[in-house]
Amino acid sequence: MSMKRAAVFILLFPALLLGAGRAEARKYPPLFNSSEIFSANFSLKKGPLVNWGSMLQRWKNGAPCETAICSSKTWAGLVAQVKAAGDPMSQVRAANALVNAHPYIEDLPNWNKDEYWATAFEFLKKNGDCEDFSITKYMLLKAAGYPVENMRIFTVRLRNFGNIGHAILVIYQGDKAWVLDNRTKSVMDANLVALEFQPVISLNEQLWWVHLPNR
Asked: Which ranges in 32-164 belong to alpha helices (H)?
């Protein structure tokens, strides 16, 4: 483990212990050549957990929104399209295609902030960057009936692009994991792109995980 990784682990370890006695929603297959430790404690005020919590507060469980920065008027139609796609994987592909049809825009020009995690309704109004695509797919699939425990948003480093930060949605069908990435139209088998992503933290509304590289 690198010194940087060790420092992250030491920082997060007390919070992780607080969740260690609780049962996980399900068992997850190992991904991206990493090991993971989970927690149910969302009180840690660090990085993605703060952004995720702030987004959920603004989301208000999908309460309708129509302002200069958010819109829910097309939401019901999008959910209906995903539901009508058929079996669960067809629904996943439909959600991925619908959201990926939106333009990409960085947080600074869009929100005048270096980092901002938009709600799905904010994304529908103003578009967004990688985590906003992932959040909107997550919420769209959830609204269509896909189980939350079978979805996780991953913050990752792109190994082939100088380890720049990125975010993806991973969905699970049994022991099979699939990657939804705004950079590609395809829903990708996680095993086939395992070397592309270095995971840092992943989360859903139930738990969050810190990822450590396997050695």
From this structure: 47-59, 75-84, 88-100, 107-111, 120-126, 130-143
Q: Provide φ and ψ at 116, rounded to 5°.
A: -150, 125
How large is the angle between the packed helices 130-143 and 75-84, nearest 10 degrees? 70
At 206-215, the pLDDT tens digits run: 999 999 988 7
Helix (H, G, I), strand (E, B) or coil at 39: strand
Q: Which SS3 state, helix, strand or coil, does residue 87 take?
A: coil
Q: Which residues pair with 166 in a beta bridge?
A: 156
How many angstroms from the chain centroid is the CA of residue 25?
A: 17
Q: pTM for the complete prediction? A: 0.90
The whole-angstrom separation of Cα 87 and Cα 135 is 21
Q: Are the C-beta atoms of 175 and 119 separated by less than 8 Å?
A: no
Closest Cα partner for 55 from 204, 212, 181? 204
User: Nearest Cα to 118, choosing from 161, 179, 198, 182?
Assistant: 182
